[in-house]
Design a protein that fits this description.
The complex is a heterodimer of chains A (87) and B (711). Chain A contains two helices and five strands; from the N terminus they run E-H-E-E-E-H-E. Chain A is α+β, with helices and mostly antiparallel strands and 87 residues long. Chain A has one domain: Roll (SH3 type barrels), CATH 2.30.30.90. The N and C termini of chain A lie far apart (24 Å). Chain B has 711 residues and is an alpha/beta fold. Chain B has a domain of 259 residues: 3-Layer(aba) Sandwich (Rossmann fold). In chain B, helix 3 links the parallel strand 5 and strand 6. The chains are: A alpha+beta (87), B alpha/beta (711). The interface between A and B is large, with 33 and 42 residues. Strand 4 of chain A pairs antiparallel with strand 10 of chain B.
Chain lengths: 87, 711
């Protein structure tokens, strides 16, 4: 279901397939929550990967800057990513 | 800005960075714990000796990822480092940086450096980093940062002596670090203007804090400085991270980083949608078992010790008010405090191990979706579950819940979970009025079903109340979840023990004093004014028993009955009895008479006291428990003189149980909520809402039951 979600030019982290390497493009979330996402290391250019999703698809486990981050779908939708080309 | 205290040192770092281990290695003591006024963030201070033999006051900075004051921890962290909280400004800062997670940890270290006081970086977890294949060039890192960097393996004590020497050196040469990044000319001008406005000695870090935090912007006053756009804060974060990336690229090499770590392998099971769920359920069942049953032998030891002490007092002090005060007031109060310790410590042990291994955040991750329909987060699950054993450890465990409002909601609904102290009450009532009912569907005992539905009622009420509170008084959106899942590690024995020791000390001294005072007050209500049957009547009847009893055994039994009657007469006239009579009109619609009223008053000490109090009120001897036949018979024998029907019907029993499910009757719980919320308002609110709810529910049950022709 999640794999078939609509892909825009810049998909959200929330819609990234598990294990697919990507790079953060932009944090669309404004305000303190957006700052928080940036301070946790989701800065533009940082490599990011969805490791797995919890039961019912929410929240999800994300690898960023070498550590694991749990993040809700609602927040992951605000992080736009650029998937790396598949080899 | 106040000048810094050179004898004060702050230890700061990310959560899970190994800060506690380094703290313990440096200070070698548990330190003094307290709370910062108005917030529930723990305040921790201790003393350390430097290599040159000087004693420094060490202050713990709550684990945080940033100093921008967006959460209670962050705000306290900022205020401690800048001396706005907890006394003077520390003259030196130890920044603990997790080598296995360099970038995100350096981000905080750079912020600490911006504040301008000497910084020493303790590079922790170097062994873990090496295992992961991350190579760090410490000399290069020192040069890039411009502050001393000391690699440390806290658990083995490696590098601690070197860290002490580095602290000495940093103190004596007093080199002040600064900002590691530059911004555009306009932003630089802004920072300069705020620095000037704050005074000559202020640092870039202070200026940036005032420009980016709400607290700061409100205080600046100068309108020209207030025009900062939100984007400024974001530009600062990006510039700082760019500096971090530069430093990491120069000083570390993770090209050889292992593709899969041990944490990844463990997580494949523990956060697996199916296996992870099963492991979680098994773990929770074990913890519940531990708090509910394994603590039982320790509780019995405590109870026996208190009984022994009371016996000792009785042997030494002659009968009278003083003796009663000591045994029924003071010792009972002390018992009321100590009796909670086994369960509190059992749960605290579980929480400490879960947190220290890194599992706790996985539990929160797994439960997040389950708890969110109620409006709560995953972390609220464990406090609520443990409240089934006892609300007190549950309420204390709510400290792990993020967000002030969510934590309050968790605290306020935790006492609705049927704790183990309600069980004796349920058991007594069920035994008294349902023991003869035929089983449902041939196998299910009515009593068991009734008790199970009481547990379900508590859960349903907790869900409903949490839902309503989240929509009204404690309105807050579905909280965001952005939570680190730290690498798994072995729990540190000394960290766990210190935490248990602190929790025990904290509970016995700070909450215990309140419980003791309230226990003594309750004793006084039950004990005064003194007197039972009229003295002449008592003497006359004693004489008659002495003369007419045929055997010694009969005489003893009849004297015992008389003594019970005397006690019942006294209770009826005591302050508690008067309260019982006074509240009778209020509880009559629930099906309760003044005798149950006394039981309700007394059960404010602890719910299970209802059973022994009813024993006294119904004059069936002093030592009854929920299984005793005497009290059950007395309850059933007690008929209403007007109708000739038993007063204690199954309907009254149900009504009484419903009241006990919902009412807030535990003084110790109130005391803990008072302490944990640091307010009078919330415990008062809790007592009011719970008891109102209990009254309404019992009223509905009793009146509807009567209309339906039951009881």
């Amino acid at each position: 279901m999640l794999a078939n979600a609509a892909r825009t030019a810049c998909p959200a982290l929330a819609n990234l397939d598990c294990g697919r390497a990507a790079v953060v493009e932009e944090v669309a979330q404004t305000g303190p929550l957006g700052d928080r996402l940036l301070e946790m290391g989701l800065t533009p250019g940082a490599p990011v990967e969805v490791v797995r999703r919890a039961p019912f698809g929410d929240p999800m486990q994300v690898r960023v800057r070498g550590y694991l981050l749990a993040i809700r779908r609602a927040q992951a939708e605000q992080v736009l990513v650029r998937p790396r080309r598949l080899r | 800005m106040t000048s810094a205290d050179p004898r004060r040192i702050a230890i700061a770092g990310n959560p899970n960075s190994g800060k506690t281990t380094i703290w313990n290695a440096l200070t070698g003591s548990a330190g003094r714990v307290g709370n910062y006024p108005g917030v529930t963030v723990e305040r921790l201070e201790a003393v350390m000796t430097t290599e040159s033999g000087e004693e420094l006051n060490v202050v713990d900075v709550p684990g945080c990822y940033s100093l921008t004051a967006r959460s209670a921890e962050e705000e306290v962290a900022h205020d401690v480092v800048t001396g706005r909280l907890g006394g003077s400004r520390p003259g030196i800062v130890v920044a603990v940086v997790d080598a296995s997670n360099l970038a995100r940890n350096l981000y905080l270290a750079l912020q600490l450096m911006e504040l301008g006081e000497p910084v020493v970086v303790a590079l922790s977890m170097v062994d873990v980093a090496a295992e992961l294949g991350i190579r760090i060039d410490v000399d290069r890192l020192t040069r890039e940062l411009g502050v001393p960097v000391v690699p440390v393996v806290g658990t083995k004590g490696e590098g601690i002596a070197e860290l002490r020497r580095a602290i000495d050196r940093a103190r004596s040469n007093g080199e002040r670090p600064g900002r590691s990044f530059r911004m555009g000319p306009e932003d630089e001008a802004r920072i300069d203007r705020v620095r000037a406005a704050l005074g000559g000695t202020s640092s870039d870090g202070e200026a940036i804090f005032w420009l980016t935090s709400d607290v700061g912007r409100e205080t600046i006053g100068d309108d020209a400085l207030r025009e900062v756009d939100e984007a400024f804060g974001r530009r600062v974060i990006l510039a700082r991270y760019a500096a971090v990336d530069g430093i990491c690229n120069a000083a570390s090499d993770d090209r050889a980083r292992a593709a899969e770590t041990r944490t990844d392998r463990v997580d494949r099971v523990l956060t697996h949608p199916l296996w992870g769920g099963l492991v979680f359920v098994a773990l929770m069942a074990t913890i519940f078992q531990a708090v509910f049953w394994w603590a039982q032998p320790m509780i019995e030891v405590v109870e026996r010790a208190v009984d022994l002490a009371a016996g000792g007092v009785r042997a030494v002090v002659s009968p009278g008010p003083l003796r009663d005060l000591l045994t029924d007031g003071v010792l009972a109060g002390v018992g009321n405090i100590l009796v909670f310790l086994p369960q509190i410590l059992m749960l605290e042990l579980a929480m400490a191990v879960l947190e220290d291994t890194g599992y706790m955040s996985r539990a929160a991750y797994l439960m997040d979706r389950v708890m969110s329909p109620v409006g709560l987060q995953g972390k609220a699950f464990i406090p609520l579950m443990s409240a089934f054993a006892c609300a007190i450890p549950g309420i204390m465990a709510a400290r792990t819940v993020e967000g002030k409002k969510d934590r309050l909601v968790t605290i306020l609904v935790a006492p609705l979970m049927s704790c183990s102290a309600r069980l004796p009450v349920y058991t007594l009532v069920v035994a008294a009025v349902f023991s003869t009912s035929p089983p449902v569907a041939g196998v299910l005992s009515v009593g068991g079903l009734v008790i199970a539905s009481m547990y379900l009622l508590g859960i349903a009420a907790a869900i409903a109340v949490a839902f309503v509170l989240k929509k009204t008084l404690l309105r807050s959106g579905r909280p965001a979840l952005v939570m680190e899942l730290p690498s798994y590690k072995r729990p540190g024995g000394s960290i766990v023990w210190r935490r248990l020791w602190r929790r025990a000390r904290d509970f016995t001294t700070q909450t215990g004093s309140v419980i003791l005072a309230l226990s003594i007050l309750l004793w006084a209500l039950l004990a005064f004014p003194r007197g039972g049957l009229a003295p002449q009547a008592l003497a006359r009847r004693t004489d008659r028993i002495e003369q007419t009893s045929s055997t010694a055994r009969i005489r003893a039994a009849r004297l015992e009955d008389l003594a019970d009657e005397d006690r019942a007469a006294h209770l009826s006239r005591s302050f508690a009895g008067r309260i019982g009579h006074a509240i009778e009109p209020l509880i009559r619609p629930l099906g309760f008479d003044w005798r149950i009223g006394i039981g309700l008053v007394a059960s404010f000490a602890a719910r299970e006291v209802l059973v022994s109090t009813l024993g006294q009120v119904y004059a069936v001897g002093e030592s009854v428990d929920e299984r005793s036949l005497g009290l059950r018979r007395a309850l059933l024998r007690d008929v209403d003189p007007r109708t000739g029907r038993p007063r204690f019907t199954p309907l009254v029993g149900i009504s009484l149980m419903v009241f006990f499910v919902l009412a807030c009757q535990c003084l110790s719980t109130v005391a803990v909520v008072r302490r944990e919320t640091n307010s009078i308002r919330w415990p008062v609110f809790m007592v009011l809402y719970m008891n109102t709810l209990a009254w309404i529910a019992s009223f509905v049950v009793f009146q509807a039951g009567r209309l339906a022709g039951l009881g």
